[in-house]
Amino acid sequence: MNEPEQPSSADEGSRDDELTQPLSVGPLRPADQSPHEPADAPPVDADRPEAPRPDAPAPGASWLPPSSPPSGPPDPWGGYPPPGTQPFPTEPARRDAGGPRARVSGWVWPVLAAVALVVGVLGGVAGSVAYDELSDSDAPGTVSGGLDDVDTVSLPPLSAEEEGSVAAVAQQVLPSTVQIIASLDGQEGGATGSGFVLDKQGHIITNNHVVESAAKDDGKIEIVDQEGNRYDATVVGRSPVYDLAVLFAEDADDLPPASLGRSQRLRVGEGVVAIGSPLGLSSTVTAGIVSSLNRPVTTGESSDDSSYINAVQTDAAINPGNSGGPLVDLRGQVVGVNSAIATNGGGTFSGQAGNIGVGFAIPVEQVVITADQILKTGESSYPVIGAQVQTGVRDGSGARIDKVNDGSPADDAGLKKGDVIVEVEGDRVTDGIGLIVAIRTHQPGETIEFTYQRDGEDRTAQVELGAEKG
């Protein structure tokens, strides 16, 4: 029997907290004065001293070298005074090329001063208004340039000699991992999870479900570092679709950022380390291997709180409270965000579930994309095709379309109800969840190729992905 239909753009999910996260040399002469003034040059202003005549003897200290070399041994400074002995130059009196200088009427200066004062006041008011408007429009913790305007780390913290040691990884990453304590349904401290430091500005990455309730109710959120220091935090933005959230703790800008790696470099069987606060036990380190890559996973207990991730699967012990903490490779770099665990019932999460050796992490590449969007605007977006697909049928035959919305990207590409999507960009799709996850590994505005079956025939369609907030 088919399960309830799911849109390819999942609604915002909501889940509880416990899921697994310089002597300046002046001019030699005035620029407007010739070195040889004519004898009948106009007199200078009475208020200013007359400039020395061209045939007058040179002053005792001159900035110019003598016209002929002096007798005696060579002067190493070429006739110029040695450094540090030059007197401060006195500028010669200027002559006006056109005759006596005109005097400015006495009434002009007060008028100019008044005009300057008015312009200055108006400019100050306008600048103040513009600043206030900018400040009011920016959510706390947002940065106009996104990740380009914050200080992240991308170099591996461990040398080749240290690589491979879980102890070395733990020593490097623990100071960058935090425990998160958030209110849940109005109860302070009701939700606990984990997170890691994104940058030197005080931004923290965690799972959406850890802080969702606090964000909706304007509840209290705290982060606790390895030393037990507590910092108040606010939500910059959340993505229920990807189960990610960015927090801002202004006073935590001295915490070291974790190094961001690449999950695409991982290989099945490679060692990884999970760090977080499982069951409230802060600064806990567990180790395991990469069990699988690109695992389509849906999390949540109902269609209303589901998120879909193309997960890194690991057998490192992950328990409730690990949610939002980093999954780290043996170079000491974050490759994912621990988000979900499998249960004995075949699902991916249960509030009372514990580790059974199958955990899932959101790839760091998706974390970077979503964090950048949230830092810029406080919101994130995800790609959609505007069609509903079956998610309950998992027989490996593909993703069957149940509905195509008019004017949607799917409609524009010629897809219809009953079509079965079997590939996206050449990668096989076995079911509806696989299709949703495959679409969400791309970005809105991209054009991707779908291979689908209709009336027993294989066909292709180019679909330009739409966008929705979430």
Name its key features.
single chain; 470 residues; alpha+beta; Pdz3 Domain; Thrombin, subunit H; 2 domains; seven-stranded antiparallel sheet; 6 helices; globular
Description of the molecule:
This protein has helices at residues 108-137, 166-173, 208-217, 364-377, 409-412, 432-440, and strands at residues 6-7, 177-184, 187-197, 203-206, 221-224, 230-232, 234-239, 244-248, 259-260, 271-276, 284-299, 307-314, 326-329, 333-341, 359-363, 381-384, 387-389, 399-404, 420-424, 427-428, 447-454, 457-464, 466-469. It has 470 residues and is α+β, with helices and mostly antiparallel strands. It has two domains: 6-11 and 380-469, Roll (Pdz3 Domain); 140-377, Thrombin, subunit H (Beta Barrel). The strands form four sheets. Strands 1, 17, 18, 19, 20, 21 and 22 form a seven-stranded antiparallel sheet that branches. A seven-stranded antiparallel sheet has the order 6-5-2-3-4-8-7, sandwiched between helices. The radius of gyration is 35 Å and the shape is globular. The two termini are 30 Å apart.
How are helices and strands ordered from N to C? EHHEEEHEEEEEEEEEEEHEEEHEEHEEE
Count the E strands: 23
The overall average pLDDT, rounded, is: 78
Globally, the shape reads globular
Please give the domain count.
2
Largest sheet: 7 strands, antiparallel
Strands, helices and their partners?
Layout: E1 6-7, H1 108-137, H2 166-173, E2 177-184, E3 187-197, E4 203-206, H3 208-217, E5 221-224, E6 230-232, E7 234-239, E8 244-248, E9 259-260, E10 271-276, E11 284-299, E12 307-314, E13 326-329, E14 333-341, E15 359-363, H4 364-377, E16 381-384, E17 387-389, E18 399-404, H5 409-412, E19 420-424, E20 427-428, H6 432-440, E21 447-454, E22 457-464, E23 466-469
Parallel strand pairs: 9-14
Antiparallel strand pairs: 1-17, 2-3, 2-5, 3-4, 4-8, 5-6, 7-8, 10-11, 10-13, 11-12, 12-15, 13-14, 14-15, 16-23, 17-18, 18-19, 19-20, 19-21, 21-22
